[in-house]
Amino acid sequence: MKEQKRNHIFSWALGLLGLCLCGVLLATDAPVADAATMSSITSDSIKDKQQQIQQAEKEKKELQNSLSDIKAIKKSLESKKKDLKNYITELDGNLAKIEANVADLRAQITAKEDDIAVAQAELDAALQRENNQKESMYARIKMVYEQGNASWADVLLTAQSFGDFLNKADYVEKVIAYDHQMWEEYKDSRQYVELCKEQLELEKEVLDQAKATVEQEQAALEDLIAQKGKDLLAYESDINNQAQAIKEYEAEIQAQKEEIEALEAAINEEKKQILASNGIVLTYDGGQFKMPLASYTRISDDYGWRIHPILKRQQFHNGVDFASPKGTAIYAAYDGVVVASTYSSTMGNYVMIDHGDNLYTIYMHASKLYVSKDDIVVRGETIAAVGSTGRSTGNHLHFSVRRNGNYESPWDYLKK
Ligand SMILES: [Zn+2]
To answer: How far is the CA of 42 from the centre of ligand 1 (A)?
Structure first.
């Protein structure tokens, strides 16, 4: 309130200043000299601010529309449950979309935090500038009033000669122009400060909105994974389609095997050609594997023959399942070359690494893949993130080791 009143009086005083510039005498060196050092706000900087505000408003609106419609996704999936493979592929497609949205939102949050730091710095500088201008004008007004009521005509009439008269007239003109410009600059400064404040508030709102959206998207992701787990369990444990479920499961394991064998065959062929042209091929030096996960909560299914937990019959499990939170880093167990980094409806997002001498490791059900085919990786390098894609009922890593065309216990390589 106090500030407002003061500004009101100040505006009035400046208006008056316009009328009684007459009062200005010649001893006005100090404020005039200030003009050059006071950087001014240009119409461009105001336009820039207005554009930034529009941009933030647009971002806010876009954020409101960027939430995945989990209800619609579930409804659309409902009709696809009869065909399990189709259902999994469709659901995983949605997981990937939400996952990408989450990554996008996280990037927006980082960028917004930077924008806010810049906007805050700009506001601080603008406030400082406004304050300097105000101080300078107060000094100017004070001086004008202290000079009494001499009119500019008096100033001119005191001229000693015609030359002096012209000099003085020129000076008075300059002073009037200077005061006018000063006032315009001050008005621009004030407008700029208001715009800076508006932008900063808006950027903070966008940041809050982005943080809320990312949390909702995360929840949608978990919800969809949980739904998938429930649906798969329900399907497999339904007595009515038990026989069908077993058949499908075995067919999927078979398809998986064929996919992997085809990859191995292609690599063998490639290596034969390299050897034929006297090139060097990768060899395994027998070193110990690194645990392929940053951390895990439990081994949810070990390697070997066991009663399948849902199908309730003897099945061979060709890897070790490590239950681990979504997003946990998956490491390359050993140095090698990535031979596959892709999606299949059984393995989900998976990576297969060639370590030489017909030794391969396979990492399944990832939420994200960080490597591509032909990438060279070193032991312990992050290659993917834990997820629940493919035939999976919850977040876990299925880790398999293959040697000379057969599955081997990963423990033989992890514990030496
Ligand atoms: Zn498994």
So the answer is: 65
User: Ligand 1 center to residue 240 CA distance, Å?
Assistant: 24
Q: What's the CA gap between 150 and 194, in Å, rounded?
A: 37
Provide the token pair at 326: 């979504």
Domain boundaries for CATH 2.70.70.10 within the chain: 242-414
Q: For residue 45, report the phi and psi dihedrals to the nearest 5 degrees.
A: -70, -35
Euclidean distance between CA atoms 95 and 385, whole angstroms: 13
Residue list, CB under 5 A from ion ligand 1 = 321, 398
From ligand 1's centre to the CA of 391, what distance in Å? 9
Q: What is the DSSP letter of 293?
A: B
Three-class SS state of 379: coil
Q: Please identify, in words, the CATH class of the domain defined by 242-414.
A: mainly beta
* Ligand 1 centroid from CA 127, angstroms: 62
- Bridge partner residues of 298 (DSSP): 323
Q: At what angle do helices 162-237 and 70-78 cross, to 10 degrees?
A: 30
Is 0.90 surpassed by the pTM of this model?
no
Ligand 1 centre from 222 Cα, in Å?
20
| 293 DSSP β-pair partners | 330
Residue with tokens 């216990």: 409
Strand 304-307 relative to strand 376-377: parallel, antiparallel, unpaired? unpaired
CA of 284 to the centre of ligand 1 (A): 25
Q: What is the pLDDT of residue 182?
A: 82
Top mean-pLDDT range of 40-44, 65-69, 171-175: 65-69
